[in-house]
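quick one, 526 residues, struct below
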Amino acid sequence: MPTQLEGCSAETIPLVTGAAGSSSGSPASHVDVLRVLVVDDNAPILRFLDSAITAEGCLVSTAGAAEQALDLLSDQPFDLVISDIKMPGLSGLDLLRAVKGRQPATPVVLITGVPSVNSAVFGLRHGAYDYLPKPFSVKEVQQLIQRLRRDRLQGDKLIGLPSGLTEELHRRQFGVEVLCRIGELALQGLEPKAFLESVLGYTIQSLGSDAALILLRDEDGNFRSSEQGHPALVKQLLSFLHAAFEDLVRTGGMETLALTKPEHSFSAIAALIPGVGRSMGILCLGRDAQTGAFLPDEKELLLGYAQTTALALQKILLRENVEKNLVNTIASFVTALESKDPYLKGHSTRVSMYAGELATVMGLPESDVLVICRAGMLHDLGKLVVMDSILRKTGELTTEEYLLIKSHPVIGDKILSPLRFLAPEAQVVRHHHERYDGAGYPDGLGGEQIPPFARVVTVADAFDAMTSDRPYRTALPFDVAFTEIVRGAGTQFDPAAVQAFATIPRNRLMEISQCFNISLPAVEIR
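---
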């Protein structure tokens, strides 16, 4: 008696010689010889389908896994692919997506058991030709092949080439665009955090992921991360990354690793972002299992994104180092010139520190606090071209001398303008003498017209000026200066900045005020 196979009905399979025979006994010359690829991890079912389909006059190739099937699809075209849905590694639904990407005209039939009917229906909605429910018989296989031949003769649209780009072609084309975009991001002067956020956004859009994250380790071994997508999935990705961290490092950035197994509820892949020295990073994607596993071309794209991100990060860090050195050089020049003047010594440093404290208590992001601190350090840059005799004059200034001193914000702005990365700081330098009531200079801006960062530095500058000796007066007592700042809210100063300034601990303000300032009157801090 014929042997009963799991998933197949026991029926006699006609003996054939090669692929020329058919169950109807028709000569091979009268039969449309189809090239069929059968994929199943169950060897008996694979042999059953091989025999049944060969008996229909077809040329059959077999594969025990979807990954093996993809290799065969790369080498030759097929007229039909029959695949089990549930297999280790890539599933039949993943294979369906790949086939429709590589050979969109090739019909795909999915083999399904009762628990997988929903998956089969999902496959039909996404381009499957039909599905074979287990247990199936030789007759059902014969009917499937015969129907396919009829559809081919009739030119059925279901198996015709779809209009427009195929899924894989579109994915690869967009992938190349994303690679270019990542490279361009490095030239836009973005901060590393903003750069990484953009990379994650492009990656999710390109590879259809539900979550993505980047982990970066600097030379000192400190980690920082950026993530997008579903929070719960991001958390799971992090746990899997910890387990696979050493394996990822060993790849050297030359391959993409799968972090999950078929039984997991989501699929995750990761690629190393090569760094310099001990610095490195990891780019990781997660996708709900219902969406499907990551296909080989998607893994290749992720690897390309990681490698391009590495090059872009190196450019950004190099640019940051150059910019930092340039700012430090300018700041050192300001400090050196101020140190020659006992009335100005340490002024820019203290303004930078006051402004940083104020920006922090106002709840501004760390990147904005950095800009404000640098602006505070550079705010009087334009005074470098003003003659010392005017800056140190103890008597009343002439109209010409006063106008020259009032020009220092514009001069400082002109000095910084060629340095595009210092554009925010240049704005502060230009407008740090504007008044909230519009009576300031050089442009007479008022209220919200004044750049927000400039309103912060204005308070810091005024407070340090009042608590420091000047050629034309001695320093005001600490509490008197503090009262003057509060009194100026809404006229000279932004009320919100003044309100935040009042929350800075008095001992911290005193600590800053004593930097390089030995002439500050001693007062009791209340």
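The CA atoms of residues 433 and 441 lie 6 Å apart.
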